[in-house]
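Usage example:
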Amino acid sequence: MDQFIQQFATGLSTGSLYAIIALALVLIYRSTGIVNFAQGEMAMFMTFTAWSVWNWDSNFWLAFFITLIIAAAFGALIELVALRPVESGPVLNPIIVTIGLVLILDSLALRIWQGQPKPFPSPAMFKGAPLSIGPADISRTNVGVFCMSLLIMALIYLFFNKTKVGLAMRATAQDRVAGSLVGIRVGRMLALGWVLSSMVGAVAGMLLAPTLFLSPTMMAGALLFAFAAAVLGGLDSPVGAIVGGLTMGVVQNMAGTYIGSNIDITVAFVVIIAILLVRPRGLFGRKAIQRV
Amino acid sequence: MFKPSRLVLLVFAAFMVFGLSFVACGGNDDEGGGGGGGGGKLPVCEGPGCGETVGVTDTSVKIGTLLPMSNTTATAWGVPLSQGMKAYFDYINDNGGIYGRKLELVVGDSQYTGPVASETAKKLTEQDKVFAFMGNLGTEAELAVYTYLEEHGVPDMLILTGDKTWVDPVAFSRSRFLVDYEVEGRILGKAIGEKYDGKKLGILAQNDTFGKDGEAGLKLGIEDAGATMETTTQYYDATQTDVTAQMQRLKADGAEVIGFYGMPAQASGGIAAARTTLSWDVPFYITGVNAAQIVGALAGWENIQGTISVSFGHQSNETEVPGVQAYQDISAKYSPGTQTNSINLTGYSVAAAMVAVLIQTGPDLTRTNFLNAAESICKYEGQGTIAPISMSPTDHAWNEAEVFVEATGTTADTFSWKPFGEVITQYETTKDCKAPTAPADADKQPHAK
Amino acid sequence: MVRVLLRPRTFVMAAGLAVLIAFPYLYRLPFFDNYLSDFRTFQATRFAIWIIVLMGLNLLTGYSGQISLGHAAFVAVGAYIAAILMKDAGLPVFAAVLAAALLTGLLGFLIGAPALRLSGPYLAIATLALIIVLPQILKHPSIDQWTGGVSGIRISSPRVPASMHNNLDMNTDQWLYYNCMLAALIMTAMAWSVTRSRLGRAFIALRDSEIGAQQMGINVSLYKMTAFGLSSLYAGAGGALYLYQQYYVGPTSFDITFSLTLLIMIVLGGLASISGAVFAALIFTVKDDLTNFIVAHIPFGEKIGIESSRGALFGLLLIVSIIFTPRGIAGNLRKQKEARPGGPRKSRIAALVNKIGLFSRKEAQASSD
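Running the assembly step on the lines above writes:
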């Protein structure tokens, strides 16, 4: 039983890593309708930027906020330069562009910062002995990641539901033509979507780097699981991203413990697909009504 | 509506035509491949890239290497390796080359996958016409090319993976640089068995040839020590960077010592998780690829104290060793701006070994002469390697000796993998050898001292 | 009949066929020897294999609108089945390739069943899962006696039949070329006839509007599963031929990068078009040569460290080509053709591609038009 509880807790910690990346994926899907394959690499790139800033002035929170500002500009730049031109083209094209971005960012990061993994600082409050909950130990970093995910989720919810800009963004994502008809500046809304998701990605990267270590490929594995988590929760649902991420982590750990560590990923994905068969839009996704 | 039967018919008709073409041509019923290049002779080979002096002129020799240079996680290895190789070749060329021949390095991008590696190997062999390959990295990539290279009689030297396939059975044209993964596991396993007899060993292994060979080695080593230990194994796949869950399971299974067979990110993560998240002060024995400064930095200097590993080479910062000092000097001059680290040093060592064989071959450079010279290498003091290396017609493994190292020092400046104990040479297959007669002008050729 | 033979198109096709047949021997002639070689023949063989693989993906994604990010998984399965049949069951190459194609097709058909309920990004990630989990399955101890576990399977290298070698002076590269190119021709013809059959029209109807297709009396489930099955059959055949050429397959021979690259290629080549798949295969074959060429010839390349930035260069090329040819090469050519006065009847392609409905900016968009 202790084993079960401990693995459950470890699953939640693993899951919180997926959840926070999944949040960034949900954010961009919700505001632009694009599944962003470059989310992981963008986060990685921003984390390296934070590392450079931190090397210049070793204050974690200073680096953190400077990076957030850079991330915002970075997101806008990517939208303007790479995504805007394919905006009106066939629907698969933005996806291909994001894959192209993966290659570019990977390669540039390798050139600028080299490939060897680097240690990344943790904020002081995440250091120290793990928290014990019953028989389970959870590291402070993971608790921190989890709390941050909840905070971001709440902010996304408030933003999309309570602010004018947020509502306009939702409208744009749903129907561009109608959006522009009622006077929404569609281009700005899409750019804002990239800005926000780039910032959330940067936060995710900086929080995960102490665990995953800073390297050009730090996000490659986690991003795949985050995709699964986002889809499981429903691609347009921030709550879904968190629930999906945690479910993914727990299922993977349970499979690893009780079935075998050499088949854990497979079992996790089988479970996710089984759930999707029952709920094809994810656990919290809204069913789209298709009209002819 | 379409009738499924018509489609089925169409498919079958198409395949019948397709099939007849095979049958009419007699199909593929020849005996197995392998080429058979043993016994000091290259296989018969006709076509581009075949021949004794391909890639050799009076003033140059072309050497190829297959490294992941783009589009993959392994680029982190490919780039520094190629820089290390190039720095050494540049140094040699600057000093006149070997018997007047400048060394030209042709880096082929394998992208670490079979389909690309095999195409690139063919390109380097037949289009660029390289004389030999050296330092091909990655088991997956090498598996896709090694029979092709063997059948074409292209020297496939100093392979940078520790898989036993490359040297067992021995092929005349092929040799391996890294220590056998299983042997390395065995050395670690023996040490574990001697110290922790009767306790339970937890193994954390990467789920691939590397991890599985290491796991087998660890178990053999325990037998070697005459110990009886229960073992429990956890695997991780390369996409999983966070191995906290695996460590937790090993703890729950009652492991009292950990044998780790995987890559630096997971080694560091595993150690850090054990010490901090799980508050678990279990001893670690980790595979040689992790005996690097970076693993200490990632795991945390305090956390990694006392961790045991093995190494076939010196650390890149052990400047008291003359070979390492030469490496630092040459790197600084010929590859400015490059980080010196153990990967970079390995590329440099491979290039140095290649040059040693070229010097031993003498001015009459042919593939057969070159490979014979490689087999005659005796007590070669490698650049940056720990023990003299000897080869023979039945032993095509370069590094077979290891030394134990222990993580010591709790700050970045004081941390090092401190060697301790005797150098373990019992797995060196060539015990006795006679130094070959050096070619006339051998001592006049440039090489790092 | 005579009239058909006299059409210009027939001449073009005959000339094309003649070039295809002569290609592997051309390098033995002066002039051509500067550009061609056994290595180019090898690449042409790969090209033929990629045609088959990409044709399958285009049938699925281009024609019937089902996105698949896991196509590489079927390629790997085809290669493994062929390897097992050749090595353990001792089947001749042809039988192994055929069986691998059919079995992979059957597997794809069955996997198509759960995929029925998913669409858009949900389907995309579900198919991506295939290629993520495949290595773990292949390595699992319960089946590693067949799959070779972590080491994969090696079969004997291909040999030219003695008669071919003696009479035509044919080497292995040429032999493989003829086999694979023949297979590619047959499977292209098959795809061509499928797209012009009722089956193909049903696929397109399905892609444009599932509900509409349903109302027209199309059995949506059966056709979707058929699309998956057919595309997997192509992938399996391609994988089996890849194995024959490469004589080795391992658990990570075909990875996620490879799988995503397949999708990139059909978009670059042109969706929902036979020639699009051929262009896609061509780009796939020459992309590394192209990057290498640019790396070697770019001015000041050394200074900006172009050597270690190949990935960035390829990514850049990719984005630029998507921006300038948003409908792929085939789509672009078609557009130019239409722009000419008296061009062919208005293409549906442009409208269709737009409406695939995958990754759509929400289905609501479709409802607005």
